[in-house]
Each structure stands twice: as C-alpha cells, then as structure tokens.
Amino acid sequence: MGKPINDDRNNRIFGNASGRIECSFHNGSTAVSGYIVKQLGTSKFRVSADGTTFYNCKLAGNTSLAQSLTAGYMTIQAYATGGSASLSARYSVATVAVFAGGSGYSAGNVLTADLDGTDATFTVSTVDGGGAITGITITTAGLCTALPGTLQSTVRRLSPTGGAGTGASLDLTFRVQSVVVVSGGSGYTAGQALTFTGLVGGSPAATIGTVDANGAILTVTVGTPSTGIHTAATSISLGTTTKYVKQIYSTRILCTDGTRTPWGLVPAVNGKAKLDTIT
C-alpha cells in the first residue's frame, strides 16, 4: 500500500499553506475545522485550527465516530472526484387521457403517437354514438428522448394517427424509463445519486448501477419510475460520495467503509486543500 505520506511527501504536503490537508478534529471541548501539520503514523496526525495550538489526534476508525467525533479523534473527508460522464434520459408514456374524442372511431382501433425512439400505441376501449372516443388505454408505452406534443399545463397534448376516425387528441404524461450512458467518464462509484435538472412532474430515484475499474459508469439503475412528467430534464448530474479516511499512505487511502483508493488534493482554498479520491 505504500509508506505513510510523512516519509516522502511531508515537505510537499504539509510544509506550505497551499498544500495543507483540511480536516476536522476534537480539541477536547468540541469538534473544529483545521488542517494537518504533521503525520505521526498511518492514522495519527498533529493538527491545528490556527497554527498556534496543536493537538495529536487519531483518525476515527469507523463512519459513526467520524460523523460524531470525541476527544482525541479527527477525520479527513475524501471527496469522490468523478467527472466527464454524459447521461441521457429515456421517457415512456405513463398516463393517457382523451382531450378531444373526434368522430368515426370504433372500439378496438389502435392509435399511434409518433415518438423519436419507439412509437407508443393506444387501444380505443369505448366510443359514443358518433364514434367519438370516450375511453382509451396504453398498449405500448414507447420510448423517447424528447417529449412529443405541446405542453398544456401539466400534460403533453398530441393528435394520434391510425384508427377509423379523425379529430382525436390525447393528453399524455411520461416517466423516466431508463438512463443511457453516453459517456462513462471516470472516478465514479456505484450508488451515487443522479439529479435531474429541469424535470417537471416527477423525479425518479436513480443511481449509478455499476462502474469499471477506472470508475467509468457502465449502467444506471432507475428505481420505481415516477409518473406525471410533462417537461424533460435539461441535464443529469451526479452527487458526490463522501468517504472518511481511516488510514492514509503515500499513494492510497483506506476508508472507514473498507474501500481502498488512490488519492490526490483538490486545489487549496484559503490555505487548505481537500483530500480527493482518484482512480
């Protein structure tokens, strides 16, 4: 795993303000923010909040302690790097309602909504005496990237094709059916949550499913699909996963969740740099 960083990188990492690693530690009275002054071992450090008063603290050995420090303990948070991934949502029809029934239709007629992926189809279940549609069901939900029709308040309105009649229009809402990995990026971890910016009408619980050895996203898992979407997402972003460092070495860190990963430093802000997990 390598030597402790104090052995060969002490001057570079701790010897100047721009390289000092940010940490939190308990000073005997309360938990405070500070930085590492010197490494005393793989899990023990000299730390300070002001450069005047110094404390020797040990890294918390588990996540619970790291989140609620007691006297003599400290934490270094490692922020997952993750970057450059490109993701795209695929939508399918969630609900259908008749806005205008038209005329000349018959029960059993199949109508089609033109989508930019796989078209959606609907089956007319009931009509009135003039053949106006009074009931309709989803036959196939289709798949699309851009939502079809025109936005009308909380629905997308469109005119389907097919059937024996004319003049029908339908109100649709959509769900996120899947998320396609356009580019996997690197440095991600399974379980990171996706955020859908611009999505209106519902938001699914979606996370990274699997990644490769470089942290490139291979699959995305979408939970129970949300319904009622009428405005598509403008972008999909990923939250970062915070890890707590249990031991730190020259090239790798061991985290309280048992994972081992290479590491680097986020550029320093106000004289302190955050530890960053990398691949």
Task: Please list the strands of the largest sheet in the order they lie side by side.
Answer: 1-2-3-4-5
In DSSP terms (H or I, runs of 4 or more residues), the helix count works out at 3
Structural class: mainly beta
Strand and helix order: HHEEEEHEEEEEEEEEEEEEEEEE
- Which residue ranges are poorly predicted, with pLDDT under 50 across at least 5 consecutive positions? 1-18, 267-273
Oligomer: single chain
Proportion in helices: under 10%
Q: What fraction strand?
A: over 45%
* Mean of residue pLDDT values: 84
- Tell me the overall shape: rod-shaped
Distance between the termini: 15 Å
Total strands: the figure is 21
How can the largest sheet be summarized? 5 strands, mixed, barrel
- What Rg do the Cα atoms give? 28 Å
* Total tally of structural domains: 3
Write the layout of secondary structure elements.
Elements: H1 5-8, H2 10-14, E1 22-26, E2 31-39, E3 44-48, E4 54-59, H3 63-67, E5 73-75, E6 77-80, E7 86-103, E8 110-113, E9 120-127, E10 133-140, E11 150-152, E12 155-158, E13 166-183, E14 194-197, E15 206-211, E16 217-222, E17 235-238, E18 242-248, E19 252-255, E20 260-265, E21 275-277
Parallel strand pairs: 4-5, 6-21
Antiparallel strand pairs: 1-2, 1-5, 2-3, 3-4, 6-18, 7-13, 8-9, 9-10, 11-12, 12-13, 14-17, 15-16, 18-19, 19-20, 20-21
